[in-house]
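Protocol step 4 of 5: obtain the predicted structure for the target chain.
Materials: sequence only (see below). No template structures provided, no constraints applied. The aim of this step is simply to have a reference model before the mutagenesis design in step 5. Sequence pasted as it appears in the construct record:
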Amino acid sequence: MATVLSRITVLKRAALDLLFPRWCLGCGKEGDFICGDCRRDLPVIAPPVCLRCGRPLTHSAACHDWPDTPDGIDGIRSPFAFEGVIRRAVHELKYRNLRALVPLLSGMLYGYLVANPLPADVLVPVPLHPKRLRERGYNQSALLAEELGRLCVLPVAANGLLRRHYTGPQARSAGISERQKNVAGAFACSDERFRGQRVLLIDDVSTSGATLNACAGALKAAGATQVWGLTVAREL
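Step 4 output (structure tokens):
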């Protein structure tokens, strides 16, 4: 049954490609959303990186200003810096409903995990508040998590972590302290399904890490043993 469904998915994608040809978001060349030439120029975050926040480092193993607390995120990793064609791809998915980008971006996350494994028993997308979900019509992080779960053969718990408070977009907040205040107490778990589990949080972009850290706090309060964050891009 799974093989039949995967073939149907491939056929659907082929039909859509015929009806709506893909153009590179970087250079405009027809063929794929990110062509081979632009892929070679992607803003890869190369090691060494901070063991906790995932930002590039020059000397030490961790940032001095990143809080090291047992109830927070164990670490955040991102394959790319939030700039150039990656920034545009994330925006096209997040704000213009270009869901056809999901297999490409999830495939990049999968490739990163193969080369840089993270402990995970379950994938959890960063949730949207119901009001924001109604406004947008979809949760881009949930779409990425579902496709990544299929590639990794890991379960996805899309409704176990809830966003209780409606908050403004983190990218519009002025600084780290304001972003942390913006999401304080914003998340909660609906049950105890994460007890004893290693959770991998999935999101599109990490700006300050405040959202992922707040999610981790709620997950650990519900019994998760480890919580790591994986995003397509990291704002540097």
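Step 4 remarks: The radius of gyration is 18 Å. The domain at 45-234 is CATH 3.40.50.2020 (Rossmann fold).
Proceed to step 5.
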